[in-house]
Specification:
This protein is of the alpha+beta class. The protein has two domains: 6-90, Phosphorylase Kinase, domain 1, CATH 3.30.200.20; 95-270, Alpha-Beta Complex (Aminoglycoside 3'-phosphotransferase, Chain: A, domain 2). Helices cover 46% and strands 17% of the residues. It is built from ten helices and ten strands. The protein has helices spanning 6-15, 60-69, 99-104, 106-117, 128-138, 144-156, 196-204, 211-222, 226-255, 258-270; strands at 24-27, 35-40, 43-49, 79-83, 86-90, 95-96, 164-167, 176-179, 182-185, 192-195. It has a five-stranded antiparallel sheet with strand order 1-2-3-5-4, with helices on both faces. A hairpin with a 2-residue loop joins strand 8 and strand 9. Helix 8 packs across helix 9 and helix 9 crosses helix 10. The protein is globular, with a radius of gyration of 19 Å. The termini are far apart.
Length: 271
């Protein structure tokens, strides 16, 4: 990035008044966009911008506060500052897991997830009903099957939580980084309090064909019946599938990105 956002420069200067704001800025890839690696003389950090277009539930200030609550748990980056529209956090040195490594390190990944779920609640409750409605309101293209599925889920109501805990809600190989101190989670923009079975359902979506092993592995760590957890995961899966399809649809409309458009079409087909 040859011309970094002046608001980012202002945030850096406000956070470290005596330091030089100059440095090297590298835009990072990602479906949500807006992340920049900042390299200065004595530090490397990650800057995450609030989305220019609305993405339901994404709130950098909430993300900052959640990370602050998790600071002592060694789960992810530490928050450094929030000054709209930029969130600054520490840069985690390491490599994101490949899908193969994610599967190979199932034990370590589940231990990380379980440690997250043992933390105190954040105070931000994730409710999928209002979230799905917000996606419906923001999207321009709406299919009758979408409306039918949304109406059905809202009529039956969300499953009562099996166990409430802080959730990350976007755990997949690309968001698990192998650092010198062990595995860590990045991209906390959807983190909030919810049912642990919803997190497990989201995790299962990232491990095609291996769901049963992950559910059993998590149930053993959480002292839950695997059958009970599996049943609860099944209850959440229709909600999660609709949420994923809605996200792809909105982001495809906002960005006109061909890849996101393909993902949206595939999601509606699967639904």
């Amino acid at each position: 990035m040859h011309n970094p956002d002046p608001y980012l420069l202002e945030t850096l200067q406000h956070t470290w008044p005596t330091a030089q704001a100059a440095g090297h800025f590298f835009a990072l890839p990602g479906l949500s966009g807006g992340s920049v690696r900042v390299e200065q003389a004595n530090r490397t950090l990650l800057a995450r911008r609030a989305p220019a277009q609305p993405i339901p539930f994404v709130d950098r200030q909430r993300e900052f506060r959640v990370l602050r609550k998790m600071r002592g748990a060694a789960l992810g980056p530490a928050p450094l500052a929030w000054r709209a529209p930029w969130l600054l956090q520490t840069w985690l040195s390491g490599e994101a897991l490949t899908p193969e490594q994610f599967t190979e390190q199932q034990e370590a990944v589940l231990t990380l997830v379980r440690r997250l779920h043992q933390q105190p609640l954040t105070g931000y409750r994730l409710q999928l009903g209002p979230l799905l409605l917000r996606y419906w309101q923001l999207c321009k293209r709406r299919h009758w099957r979408w409306q039918r599925q949304l109406s059905r889920l809202l009529a039956q109501g969300e499953p009562p939580p099996l166990r409430l805990a802080p959730l990350h809600m976007d755990i997949h190989p690309g968001n698990v980084v192998a650092t010198a101190d062990g595995l860590r989670l990045i991209d906390w923009e959807y983190a909030a309090d919810g049912d642990i079975a919803l997190e497990v359902a989201a995790l299962c979506a990232a491990v095609n064909g291996e769901e049963t092993h992950w559910i059993i592995g998590y149930a053993q760590r959480a002292n839950l019946s695997p059958t009970q957890l599996l049943q609860q995961v099944r209850r959440w899966q229709p909600w999660l599938h609709l949420l994923m399809a809605s996200w792809y649809q909105l982001r495809a409309e906002q960005t006109q990105d061909a890849f996101l458009q393909q993902l949206a079409q595939a999601s509606w087909h699967d639904l």
